[in-house]
Amino acid sequence: MAFKSIRVSDLTGAEGTDEEFVSVIVRKHPAIEEAVVFDAKPEELKGLKSADQLVILEIKNGGEPTQVVTTLADFSKLSPNIADVLKNAPGVRGRRPGFRPASKD
């Protein structure tokens, strides 16, 4: 006796070989609490439009951080000097731009 494994799209139920599928990871969606993955055929995803020049922000206010996705154009409206603000902002590791720890020579 033998077993036959058939790959099936989670979106449409379409069958195919492993090579015909992609894995889609959903990192954030109102219906989920943590990232999930599902299988789909590339042609099933063609209706999705890619959004170019996005800015992804994490806003912290003491509690749970909030992720905000906005367009570069809208983000640039925050300040006429936004490029300078970003250039002079510290990294998330706390170092100011251009700072180098003293060498141990």
User: How many beta strands in the DSSP annotation?
Assistant: 6
Please, how many helices? 2
Order of helices and strands: EEEEEEHH
Strand line-up of the largest beta sheet = 1-2
The best one-word shape is: elongated
Rg over CA atoms, rounded to whole Å, is 22 Å
Which structural class is indicated by helix and strand composition?
alpha+beta
Mean pLDDT value: 87
Question: Residue share in helices?
Answer: 10-25%
Low-pLDDT stretches are none
Instruction: For the record, give the distance between the C-alpha atoms at the N and C termini, rounded to a whole number.
Output: 71 Å
Strand content: 15-25%
Question: How many independent structural domains?
Answer: 2
The largest β sheet comes out as: 2 strands, antiparallel
Structure commentary:
The protein folds into 2 domains: 1-45, no CATH class; 50-93, no CATH class. The strands form 3 sheets. Strands 1-2 form a two-stranded antiparallel sheet. The chain has a two-stranded antiparallel sheet with strand order 3-4. The chain is of the alpha+beta class and 105 residues long. It is elongated and about 70 Å long. Strand 5 and strand 6 form a beta hairpin. The protein contains 2 helices and 6 strands.
